[in-house]
Amino acid sequence: MAEAPLVQKAHRKFADRLSVVGVVSGPDQSVDQSKLDEIIFQLGLTYPQVRDRDLSLTHLFQVEGTPDVVLLSAERQVVYRGHALPDSLESLLNE
Question: What's the whole-model pTM score?
Fold first, then answer.
């Protein structure tokens, strides 16, 4: 949750060069959707949230914990992976 406002800020600032998607991993019985909706509202998140109920995205991107930030190039190649946004997101987007 601490990272979400920073991601939201990047989503707004770089909207013309960056698509942001939040991924919520876990089956329905492990995710309280109403609590999730409340948190999204409280944090003012406007980027889409995708439910990864079968953990296919979690496995595809080898997510081992949260938060996990994965940035993909337009060619769908991983250009950054970490537990926080990169220090210089702008330089990554300009490459």
Answer: 0.78
